[in-house]
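Table 4 source record.
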Amino acid sequence: MKFPKPYTLKEIAEIINTSYIGNDDFPVLGMNEIHVVEPGDIVFVDHPKYYDKALKSAATIVLINKEVECPEGKALLISDDPFRDFNKLTQHFNPFRSASKSISDSAVIGKNTVIQPNCFIGNNVHIGDNCLIHPNVIIYDDTIIGDNVTIHAGTVLGASAFYYKKRPEGFDQLISGGRVVVKDNVHIGALCTIDRGVTGDTIIGEGSKLDNQIQIGHDTVIGKKCLIASQVGIAGCVVVEDEVTLWGQVGSASGITIGANAVVHAQTGISKSLKGGKTYWGTPVQEAKKELKDKAFIKRIPELLEQLKTNK
């Protein structure tokens, strides 16, 4: 998430009431999670296990819960609770805006686009030309939809990320300030749920087709011309490269990559990154050709045992 204008390190520290290490006028351009940070971004870290990763990341401002040596060319914000203060920054730069009508005055809707009854279109939503939005679709604030997109009834775009920190009193949610971006020529079936990014974008690539009842987690990027069948569940921060096919009830862990032109058979559980151009099946996931060949051999065990008895 980029800020509307550059801020200084001192200004950011005043917003969240923290101390800092670095020049007062050190430039701060935005905030992001570690997998998408760029120079000028703030990243937060609150566990020693991840200090080194955050300090060596592309982010040039690290919101951290311990005073450590500051890497050259970077700055630190010292906080007793970086998770809390990251949320404060999200609320400051992207506060919740309540709605007063079904289609916000700030929404931009393109030519020849049809919005069916009982839809909700939030603040600062952009919908392109020649789209068809069927009844009871909910489109949260800041969502971007391209041209020639069809969205079927009951789908929800832009709900918050399933991202929590466990505390003694319960679970504390990381506030989502990102967006959902749907590219041109996408088809989204009924009752799908696509969560917004925490600080970046959840993206559905051009020409991809989604069946009914699909869940896509925060900050996931779906490539071009992908086919995703019913009841697939994709966790947060997943990269699905171009022309991937995921058949029904496939489930994936977070933070993995599924390579271009991969095909994943129904009910597969994906716990690791997959190379492109191959077909996969099963839980844990395996290359389908090898797995099915192994199963064929296993089925032959009774036959082989009978042959052994006969040969004795």
